[in-house]
Input
Amino acid sequence: MSSTTMTQKQGFAATLWDYLTTVDHKKIAVLYLIGGGFFFILGGLEALAIRIQLIQPNNDFVSNGFYNEIMTMHGTTMIFLAAMPLIFALMNAVVPLQIGARDVAFPFLNSLGFWLFAFGGILLNCSWFLGGAPDAGWTAYAPLSVVSPGHGVDFYVLGLQISGAGTLIAGINFLVTIINMRAPGMTYMRMPLFTWTTFVVSALILFAFPALTIGLFLLMFDRLFGSGFFDASLGGNSIIWEHLFWIFGHPEVYILILPAFGVFSEVIPTFSKKRLFGYTAMVFATVLIGFLGFMVWAHHMFTVGMGPAANSIFAVATMAIAVPTGIKIFNWLFTLWGGNIKINSAMLWSLGFIPSFTIGGMTGVMVATAPADYQYHDSYFVVAHFHYVIVGGVVFAIFAGLHYWWPKMFGKILNETLGKITFWTFFFGFHLTFMIQHFLGLMGMPRRYAVYLPNQELELGNVISTIGAFLMAFGAIVFVINIIVTTTKGEQVSGDPWNGRTLEWAIPNPVPHYNFKQLPLVRGLDALWIEKTEGRKELAPAEPLDDIHMPNPSILPFVMSLGLFIAGFGFIYQVDHPSWLIVLFIGMGITLGTMFIRSIKDDHGHHIHKEDLDEEAR
Amino acid sequence: MSQDHTLNPEVMPSEPEKATLEGKNKFLGFWFFLGGETVLFASLFGTYLALQGSTMGDNTPEKLFGLGLVFIMTMLLLTSSLTSVYAIYHMKNNDFRKMQLWLGITVILGFTFLGFEIYEFYHYIHGYEFTFRSSAFGSAFYTLVGFHGGHVLFGLLWIVTLMVRNAKRGLNLYNAPKFYIASLYWHFIDVVWVFIFTVVYLMGVI
Ligand code: HEM
Ligand SMILES: [Cu+2]
Output
């Protein structure tokens, strides 16, 4: 039934209800795209405000206090509410198709993960209207974050707690999906690299996020319930926060970059018409990076005073990660080498990525040199470093991935001219903004300061940086226009517009909501390409045509997350007046009540009968 | 091929918790979840160890902790783990009544444990004025042990819900995985307690 309604025009209310209750990974991908895209724009506006403030010395575009809020929210929003969800959008859209599955392992939890992220993000941003946003940096170091007045940091704690729970759920979901739901013949070493990186990243999420969960709990207890974890007058120790934060935080940066590596490992082979060079080495490097990612967190704390032994160990471990990363860079270059290269927008982002990210990796090794880091730390040099890896790596990958998979997600190819305008302005603006920041940092400009003084030769660099930021903003606006133009004017394309290599391109356009009528039989790496080279157009089915079992939609994930959102306000405001505890209990009651309903109400899903499948094919 | 028939086969398989794809997914997913929980508790233990000495006065571990009470609590929880093993054993033999019986015993032991824990906290707070807010040690102690206690409570409510919900209809391939992972959760809570017993109480008094 629902497959036929999909193609018909629906009323707004029906569509809304459809998306509120959907458990279809493809629609959840769209939700993540909308949510992540919204926060990306919001974080971008905050970035522009930062750059306007810094365009000249002693500027007063914003007050010092407000600057702290903008700067904190920019980082927090971009990492947790923009980059992560946009990556989840790609994962949800692509991974089940790449492994030949009809859905993820836990469709209900998939939806819950999204709504938790959405309500966490909204809660965090409510702070703007309720007395001020968090202002202790995205890293929220104690004791600053404990004593920060107002409720800003409380919103940070509860917003991230809720959206973090969503991320954890998504991680478990992808782990089980990739292990249990692969089509017949899809062995681990035949999985596309994007699936592999999703797999490793999900494991990182699983083991990294609980550390943040605990850190946030401790901070919440200190701020809202009078405990003394980070309070020296009660014997507390604020360094504990730094450890917990970075035990989560460093794996987090790899959680962001590994899927980006995955995207490029799909785009580059497709448009070079070559198999990915060194597939096995790529898989091995991914796993190794994931593993080493847990051993290096303290390189963010070289100046804390851990002592030379600890600093040396963490410095060496950190530099070791550059080795598997270098392997990857060379493998992409060798994939390009001698290939039949077609340059379009997706490919431009991938080619732009290689030098940009390499620069970020080089500065990474520089800041990993513990003694030298005493100079770089908390200066604009570090700001330049992580923007080179996060923008030059993750954001470029999101653009590349969106161009590449847009026809799979929405059936249309994004406009190439607009796509190229976006790339060139954004690419140029990016280097303009951040290259100069290396030098600003070396010249002594500290990060997170709202003002700098005149006559310290910092003026020109900051002007250049701000101009670059506006170029990036221009590129991003053109991308939004591109989406609008493509959606209204673009033409439907076939299911395989790029002459693709992997399973997702074997599915017709639009993708049926059960993905595969019959599960495909996978015969090797680049499963579709193998069939193509042998003259077939599609994969052999691995099963006879039969009824298809699909999960039921449900509103419960939305309600569960809404409950936590409400409870969040109760937690925050009960310090002001105990009557807010009522709100807390109502919210938790809603959440626990829906969990109870979920537990006692059977949900067997439904079947699409094979007669109806035949019907559709005709 | 109705839903009813596939989930209620004439002969139950020997591992009903893993007989369906949904069951396999739940089984694996829950193991991963427990992996995450391990990091959660590891972070709490790390915090506790760092703040153990920050007592800000004479409410120290040596003075507060009495091993007698904690030993009884440990025995209660260890026994409840054993009884939940029996329950799962009977689940695999498709003996629903005996499974319910052993789960019932598990739940009673669990609630008794919780009762002792509440008594213990009450005793510290009113007997010694040792609270969540009196020192960093107090914060870390109540957080670690309280998190565990919260897990116990959640686990008990979960098992009771499953028992009541399925009391009339018995075992099938839809609810077997649910019972199974609830028992996994219970074992996990038990293992965490063994560490709490060792690290907090035993190492605290010697
Ligand atoms: C070769 C690989 C890399 C090395 C050796 C490296 C090393 C480091 C070091 C030592 C710092 C601390 C600098 C300081 O605060 O003084 C740092 C900061 C940072 N790095 Fe990297 N990094 C690498 C790759 C990445 C990647 C791939 C990402 C993200 C995608 C990333 C994101 C960050 C962020 C966000 C910070 C700043 C955190 C903060 O203080 O706010 N790095 N990096
Ligand atoms: Cu790091």
User: Anything to note?
Assistant: The first strand of chain A starts at residue 548 and ends at 550. Residues 20-554+603-617 of chain A form a domain with the Cytochrome C Oxidase; Chain A fold (CATH 1.20.210.10). The beta strands of chain A are 548-550, 606-608. Chain A touches chain B at residues 105-106, 168, 172-173, 175-176, 179-181, 206-211, 213-215, 217-218, 221-222, 225-229, 231, 234-237, 240, 243-244, 247, 547, 596, 599-600, 602, 604 (CB under 8 Å).
